[in-house]
Amino acid sequence: MRTGDGQTSSGTPMGRRGFLLGSAAALGTLALSGCTTIKALSMAEAEQAYGPLPDERFPIEAVNLNKVAPKYWRRTVRYDSAEAPGTIIVDPRNYYVYRIEGDNVATRYGVNVGRAGFLWSGDAYIGRKAEWPVWTPPREMIERQPEVAKYAGGMPPGLDNPLGARTLYLYQDGRYTLYTLYSTRQPETIGKGISSGCIGLLTQDMMHLYERTPVNTKVIVLKA
């Protein structure tokens, strides 16, 4: 989901072409050799990790785990990388997001990604974070989908807001790219290409990542 947020950002938003010009040198520093699970969630642990969140501003129901393949449940994996702990690596080809923990270990989350024609790759950083954000569709989306024009002034936070409960905004060179890591309450979308370029995590996973991700965290999006 390529999207605006209705809030002030420094500079002019970059288009998808600009985002594709990420640092090849940074991608070259990755030493990836596949993943081996160190700790996977049992069903009981998964039911707890993906349980209801009644104390949120807008209470969130438990994830229907029958709609998510177990390989996309949050887990700790071996992931060889030269990147610093905290770095986020997006692997759209395999529908995963990794948070580097150090010592060649990462936390892995299942995600949805951009559909055909909206995939992108490159380097960025988290320029801003938001809880229960306002969503404002960008001009290009309104042109493609006139039905969202009613939200040109911003869609209020809530369970029906496309950005969900938590959002991490991707920036390059001080400019908002119009791409995000966002939370979704639609478990059936995990492991699929459905958005206009943004990366969706289950709400409980997004909240887990959000709390561990400060502003200025490096993000690398690999080629699909």
From TrEMBL:
Transmembrane segments: none annotated. Pfam families: YkuD. Pathway: Cell wall biogenesis; peptidoglycan biosynthesis. The keyword Secreted does not apply. Residues 86-222 form the L,D-TPase catalytic domain. GO terms for molecular function: glycosyltransferase activity; peptidoglycan L,D-transpeptidase activity. GO terms for biological process: cell wall organization; peptidoglycan-protein cross-linking; regulation of cell shape. The keyword Cell wall biogenesis/degradation applies. One of its GO terms (cellular component) is extracellular region. Belongs to the YkuD family. PANTHER family: L,D-TRANSPEPTIDASE, L,D-TRANSPEPTIDASE ERFK_SRFK-RELATED. This is Lipoprotein-anchoring transpeptidase ErfK/SrfK. It comes from Devosia subaequoris. The lineage of its organism: Bacteria, Pseudomonadati, Pseudomonadota, Alphaproteobacteria, Hyphomicrobiales.
